[in-house]
């Protein structure tokens, strides 16, 4: 599977790349805007933070297919092997088809429905990103959407991968992996929750206390 961080925090990427088997970093316009660093500066920094070994994802801003294709070229001029995120609208689908014809890899984003996601894969997207928590937040079932999308892709677009996105809890991410997702992207807080549970700290403190009581030290 591929594990990505969904962030523009360069220092955090450096820190977590040491700990997690990271496949790369995803961003979206809000994530980039939050860090206030323009993409031409940020993307090379993220690339370096991954030691040049990870895959980067950045999103187009235009609303027309022509504009999206032009944005894709601008982003790829910054990072040549970048995956271009394209919202799955009517214009976005046309842009994905053009970019596929040019050999530029894309991710269909802002996916709230399994059928919407399937269309982006059929248009040529390499990845499809369903928004799990946002679907839940509007009264839908994010995990069911992922399950349906995963099955649709395996039946009808086996070359495309679900890259599940928009998580608020580790459980949501695990449910996606159990549904068979080959890739997920986690915000920093959710990624850290996998290893920073208070019960873990308490268990380790108890081991030290028992060792100290028996041997008068906490080392081997
Ligand atoms: C990924 O493609 C999305 O941009 C991102 O995961 C959305 O996450 P959010 O719903 O937490 O903003």
TrEMBL record:
InterPro entries listed in its UniProt record: Aldolase_TIM (IPR013785), TAL/FSA (IPR001585), Transaldolase_3B/F6P_aldolase (IPR004731), Transaldolase_AS (IPR018225), TSA/FSA_arc/bac (IPR033919)
Keywords from the UniProt entry: Cytoplasm, Schiff base
Cellular localization per UniProt: Cytoplasm
SUPFAM superfamilies hit by this protein: Aldolase
Location (main, coarse): cytoplasm
Top-level taxonomic group: Bacteria
Keyword Cytoplasm: yes
CDD domains associated with the record: Transaldolase_FSA
Record-linked Pfam families: TAL_FSA
Entry keyword Lyase: no
Protein name, entry field: Fructose-6-phosphate aldolase
Organism listed in the record: Phytobacter palmae
Gene: fsa
